[in-house]
User: Fold this.
Amino acid sequence: MSGPSDYQPSHPVLKWIERRLPIFGFVHGSFVAYPTPRNLNYWWTFGAILSLMLGVQILTGIILAMHYTPEATMAFHSVEAIVRDVNYGWLLRNMHAAGASMFFFAVYIHMLRGLYYGSYKEPREVLWILGVIIYLLMMATGFMGYVLPWGQMSFWGATVITNLFSAIPLVGDSIVTLLWGGYSVGNPTLNRFFSLHYLLPFLIAGVVVLHVWALHVVGQNNPAGVEPKSEKDTVAFTPYATIKDMFGVSCFLLLYAWFIFYMPNYLGDADNYIPANPAQTPAHIVPEWYYLPFYAILRSIPNKLAGVIAMFSSIIVLAFLPWLDTSRVRSTKYRPLAKQFFWIFVVVAVLLGYLGAQPPEGIYVIAGRILTVCYFAYFLVVLPLLGKIERTKPLPNSIADDVLAKTGSKAVPMVSTVLALVVAGGLLVGGIDRARAAEADTPPANKWSFAGPFGKFDRGSLQRGLKVYKEVCANCHALSYIAFRNLGDTGGPGYSTAQVASLASEYKIKDGPNDSGEMFERPGRAADYFPSPFPNEQAARNANGGAAPPDLSLITKARSYERGFPWFIFDLFTQYQEQGPDYVAAILQGFEDNPPADAKVPSGSYYNKYFPGHAIKMPKPLSDGQVTFDDGAPATVAQYAKDVTTFLMWAAEPHMEARKQLGFQVFFFLIIFAGLMYFTKKKVWADAH
Assistant:
C-alpha cells in the first residue's frame, strides 16, 4: 500500500531515469506520502530501530571480517589483534558484539508489541510469518557469530548446541557431522560458521525487504486495532512518522552507546576471554542472554529428543498465532482478560530466561518445567479460549476517534502489574539475602582509578605493577598480547621511546633461522612481544605440578564471580564492571598459611579463601618487602596486588581511556540530538493532534 505519490522530478536527468525506472516515485510513495495511522505510539519506532541495527551489524561485520582469521589456532588471537592493533578496532568489536544484544532486545520489544496489539491478525498473517522467519534467521546468525571468537564459552556452546541435532532419529548424527565438518568441533566447523555468519545477514536483509513489502500492501496496524477509514485517520509518513522515529532512534542509541563505551563486557561471559580448550570443559555452559528462555525449556525436559522438539516448538508456535488467537478484536487494549494474561506471559518468559542461566538442578528444574507448561499453555490454551469467552470493551469507530478519546486520564493499575511487582520484590529481597549470605567468599570491592565513566589509569600504579610482573609474575606467566611498544602508547604506563627501547633490550628474544638454518637469541626490540617463560604448554605444566600458568594478558577479563540478583541490575546503572580486577587482587591476597581446620587441601595445592574450592596450585606469590618501588610506595602485599592488577587491567584493555573519552563525546552529541529531535517532533505533530 503506497501513498498517493505526486512526485514529478524537475531535473532532466532525474526525469530520464524516472521514465525508464520510476524508483524515485516508488520511494516517494512508500516512504514520504505513505499514509500512516495517526495514533501510532513509540512502540512502533522499534521497526526503524531494527532497520538501523541491521545496517550497523552488516557494516561492522564486513569490516571485522576483513581482519578476522577463521582458523582454529588463530581465531582468538585475530580477534584480540582487531581490538588492540586495528584503528578503532575496539569500537568496531564493541559495536558488533553489543549490537547483537541490542538487536535482539529491540526485536523482542517489536514482537511483544505485535503480540499485544494483535498485529498478526488478518490481513497481516504473511507479514507476521515473515517476521518469525527473520527471527529464526537472527537466532542462527547470532549463534554462529558467538562461536567465531573461539573462546571457551564459544567452543563449548557450539559443541553443546550442535550436539542437539543428534537427537533427531536416523539423520541426526549425519547432520551433526555435516555441521562439524568432521567428528568433533574444530577448524572446519569454524570455517562453516564464519561463512554462514557472513552470508545470513544478507538473507535477513532480503526477508526484511519482503517484510516491509508485505507491510505496505496491508498497511500498518495501530494501537486501536481498527483500519483507517478516512484521511483524518492517517498522516503522511514523512515528516510525521519519520521525525518520531528519529527521536525514538536517538533515545535507543543512548542505550546502545552505554554498552559500547561504558559496559562493553556486561552482557558477555568471562570464559570467552579464555582461548578454546577442548580438554577443559567450563563448569557451567550458558548461551547468550537472548537464548536463555529457550535453553531453559530445553533443559526442563529430561528426554533429549523431546527437549529439542519443545525448544524449537516454542519458536515455531509463534507462526501459528494468527489461527490460535480466535478473538475478533485485535488490540489487547480492549481485551481486559487478554491484557492480564499477556503480562503474565511476559513474566513467565523473563523467569524462563533467569532459569536458563542457573544450574540444571533441584528447584530450578522443577520451576523450569512449570514455566514451560505455562509458556505453551498461553498459546495453545489461553488464546484459543479467550476468544470465545472474553467480553471485550467497545472499539472506537475510527482512528481519529481513538486519538480524540485520549484525555490523559490515569488508568487503574493492572492486577498483573501489581503481581509482577510483588514477584520482583520477592526476588529482590531473596537475592539480597543470598548475596549477604555469600559475602564471606566474595572478593572485596576496591577503589580503582580506572573505574567509572571518567576513570583513568594511575601511571605510577601501572609502572609499579609492571615491575611486580617482571620480578615476580614473569617467572611463570606469559604476557603474549602485549608488545614492548605498547608501554609507550597513549593511555598506558607513559614510558618514552628511549625507555621502551631500553626495557625491551633487557629481554632475550629467540629469532631465526639465520643463514645457517639455526635459531639464535638477540636483544629485544620495541616491536617484540613479551616472551613466554616456557617454550610450550607441556614445559609449563611440567614445571608447575601439572597446571599450566595462564597467560596474564586477559586475566582481569577472563576471571569474574557471580554478583547475583539484584546486584547485576544495579551494576548496569552504576557502571560496575570491575569483578575481574577485584577477583585477581583478592586471589593474590587470599593465601593463608594456616587454613581452617575443616579445609581439605590436596597435596601440591595451597589454601586460598577466594579461589573456588579454596585449593589452588599456585603457591603464595607475594610477600612484604619482596619488591622495592623507586617512588617510595609501600612494599606490602596489598600494594603489590593493587598495582599489578592495575597493570594487568591495562594489559587486558589498553584502549580503555580512549573508549571512555570518545564515549563522553558521543553521549554529549546524542543528548543534544535527542533534544532537538524531541522539540522538532513536538512542532511537527502540533497540528496533527
Q: What stands out?
A: The CA atoms of residues 591 and 620 lie 6 Å apart. The beta strands are 35-37, 234-236, 508-511, 520-523, 606-607, 615-616. Residues 407-414, 424-440 have pLDDT under 50 and may be disordered. The first strand starts at residue 35 and ends at 37.
